[in-house]
DNA sequence: CCACTGTTCAACCAGTTGGTTGACAACTGG
DNA sequence: CCAGTTGTCAACCAACTGGTTGAACAGTGG
């Protein structure tokens, strides 16, 4: 099956599932309960829940005939970590780039072939 | 097409695309350049890039025959906002729940059959 | 100008997704 | 125990995905 991070992103790529997650932050819900607002069959909702469960975003227990669905919010951290890591990296890079540009402006005697990495030096 | 948030999540649900994004935080890259590490055709990579572009995660300009790919890191905020909003909401709810449980423990005169209506709170 | 490099478009294919309906399983509670 | 409520499983379908190959387009540079 794909790694968990992929499953989490994929699970949240569907608006209906995102809405379910949003509602589950307020309170646990039964399947019927969850299904009510959407114009799809109960089975479809059950499938959505399976996707969320496989991603580790929700868990289900039993309580009488009902299967209360509970949000496992810790999984959010998985995404947050990934996103923040690369966001930070991108920001640092932009900072570096700004510095380079500033330096170039500063003393424009710099050779244009100045060992900048890939595209970076493309100050056309 | 779907809304942008869905497209962004869907785009990042693929490990190859996540890796491309990761590499693009370091520097811009051409398509060939990007494709090098992966064992798929150039056309497949081109498709992945289209997905990332449709999600607003990257932009492409022209430079001679090359099409340098550039990361648009701001889009990360879209996800971060969504995630953080609901994470916070979930945390607040858990805090509330803890409070309720603490209170119940405090004066255990509470009827044990205390109508667990929805699942918990009723404190909406 | 024309060959070459870099990239995309088009058609196709297998596998997945999100939905459907119908049957059935699990559990309560009268 | 049996009827009723709640939810899942199975089979099916259309649409989408991620990959392929072959052809075409864009732009440079000899």
From TrEMBL, chains A, B:
PANTHER family associated with the record: SLL0088 PROTEIN (PTHR38600:SF2), TRANSCRIPTIONAL REGULATORY PROTEIN (PTHR38600)
Please list the residue ranges annotated as the HTH arsR-type domain.
1-90
Q: Which Pfam families match?
A: HTH_20
Q: What is this protein called?
A: Winged helix-turn-helix transcriptional regulator
Q: What is the lineage of its organism?
A: Bacteria, Bacillati, Actinomycetota, Actinomycetes, Propionibacteriales
Q: Mind telling me which NCBIfam families this protein's record contains?
A: HTH_metalloreg
Q: Which InterPro entries match?
A: ArsR-like_HTH, HTH_ArsR_DNA-bd_dom, WH-like_DNA-bd_sf, WH_DNA-bd_sf
Check the record and name the CDD domains matching this protein.
HTH_ARSR
Q: Which domain of life is it from?
A: Bacteria
Q: What PROSITE patterns does UniProt report for this protein, alphabetically?
A: HTH_ARSR_2
Region ranges (Disordered) = 105-124
Which residue intervals are annotated with compositional bias (Polar residues) in the record? 110-124
**Organism this protein belongs to:** Nocardioides baculatus
